[in-house]
Write a structure and sequence with these properties.
Keywords: Membrane, Transmembrane, Transmembrane helix. With about 210 residues, the protein is an all-alpha fold. The chain has one domain. The chain contains eight helices and no strands.
Length: about 210
């Protein structure tokens, strides 16, 4: 973990890469939601597949196409779990009758199934992104997931990265809600956490594919 904490500040590309990531999150937070996170997603995918000790360049032209491809994978893999979650919510909130015991059982089973699908989605997507960047093909992002997913080394890297990202996003969101200079600081925290998390998951992916 110590290696990942200092990762965003190492190497010749570190300053520009961190600044670019920060701007993506800042603009997303205060001006244009979601859209500016697309290049950050592409850069995170690059880190997942990168085995160097220093961050790659954020300003290379290839990042544009890579970001679009990464977005296609993230959206494509998310259709089923997100769609299932929306259907479950509609079913749970659409009735006018008082809930029965059967309804309570349905809520329990349905919510458990949705959470399991979302967890599987979050676990598999980084593998798909790393495969895609390594091979340069969207098809590669749809194959070879099982071998990596079943490796304990990947799980450790993914779990630590997920914790860092969740904590970072939580802190960033709290700061952004305060507005002003806090929004700027919160955006930096979110960007830094995203880079650290990508590095941790990427290390697990690299170890699992050796």
């Amino acid at each position: 973990m110590r290696e990942a904490l200092g990762y965003p500040t190492r190497g010749e590309h570190a300053e520009k890469a961190l600044l670019s990531a920060w701007l993506c999150v800042l603009v997303h937070s205060i001006v244009i939601p979601v859209v500016t996170l697309v290049p950050l997603l592409g850069y995170a995918a690059t880190i997942l597949a990168d085995e160097n000790d220093e961050p790659p360049s954020f300003l290379e032209r290839a990042l544009v196409g890579r970001s679009l491809g990464a977005t296609v994978l993230v959206v494509g893999y998310g259709v089923v779990p997100v769609g299932t979650a929306l259907v479950a919510i509609l079913l749970l909130t659409g009735g006018d009758q008082p809930p029965t015991d059967a309804d309570a059982l349905f809520v329990l089973v349905g919510s458990t199934a949705v959470l399991a699908m979302l967890a599987a989605y979050a676990y598999l997507v980084p593998i798909a992104l790393a495969n895609y960047v390594r091979a340069g093909s969207l098809r590669a992002g749809c194959t070879g997931l099982g071998a990596v997913a079943g490796d304990a080394v990947y799980f450790v890297g993914w779990a630590s990265g997920a914790i860092v990202l969740l904590v970072g996003v939580g802190i960033a969101g709290a700061f952004v809600d305060l507005g002003g200079i806090f929004a700027v600081a919160g955006s930096f925290v979110g960007a830094y956490a995203a880079l650290i998390a990508s590095r941790r998951v990427g290390r697990g992916y690299a170890a699992a594919t050796e």
